[in-house]
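Researcher: Structure prediction, please.
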Amino acid sequence: MQQIFNFLIKYKVGLVFLGLLILGLSLTLTAHDYQNSKVVSAANDVTGNLFNFKTNVSDYFRLGPQNEVLLQENKNLQEQLYHLRQSAFTELDTTAFSIDSVYKVYTSKVIANNYAYSDNYLLLDSGKKDSIEPGMAVLSSLGIVGITEQVSSRFTRVISILNRNTSINAKLKSSNHFGTLTWSGDDPYVTSLIDVPRSAKVNLGDTITTGGKSFIFPGEIFIGVVEDYELDLNRGYYNISVKLFNDMTDLGEVYVIKREDKEEALELLENVEEE
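Model: Predicted structure follows.
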C-alpha cells in the first residue's frame, strides 16, 4: 500500500495532467459532433483493419482445404465434360466403338518435373492405391501434360509431351484435319503437329486440340495455337509449330483420366485384326 502512495506522490503531476487531458477530450467530443465523428471513424478504421488482417490470416490457413474442395468439384465437372464430348463425337463418327464411353477423373500433384532434356518425364504423388494405371491421360486445367507409364503403390511416372517418343493424335479445331503431335526436343513451350494434309486451311493463331481418335486422351482437349507452319511440297503435308497453352515448366495440380471402356474396345479391335 505504501508503494502505491509513493507512486501517486512521485507522479502526481503527470497523473493530474493525464486525467485533465482525458476529461478535456471527453468534453470536446461530447460537445462537438465533428470531432466525435472523426474519432469514431478512426476507431472504425483501426477495428476494420484488425478484422481484415484476422480474416486474411484465417483465409490463408484455409487455402489447403478450399483447394481440395475446388479440385473435387473440377474433377466431377471434368468427368461430365469428357463424357459429353465423347458422346457427341461418337454420334458423328460411325467408326467409334461405344456410345456409352465414360471417363473417370482422378486428381494428383506433380512432385518432380523434367523439361530440359530431350526425353522428359514427370512424377505424380499418386499410384496404384489411388486407382492410377499405365496408359492414362494426364491433363492440367490448361491442356494436355502426358501419359502415365510406370505405376508403383504411391507414385506414377508420366511420359511428358516434351518427350521425343510421344505421338498424340491432334487436330485443327477449325477444320477437323488430323495430324500427329510430336516434340523436337528443343523448346519446352512449343511442339509440332505433323502430317496434316495440304487440303487443310491453316492460319496463325488457330487452336489445336486432341483429335479424339485415341483410347487415352478425350477429344477436344486444348493443346495450343499455331505459331508457325510450312508445307512440305515433296510429301504434301504441313509441319505446324504449336505454342502450348500449358507452361510445362510450371506444373502443380493435374487430372489423370481413365477411359473405362478402353479394355473392351481394344479387345474388339484385336479380334477384328486377327480375323
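Model: The first helix runs from residue 2 to 10.
Researcher: Thanks, that helps.
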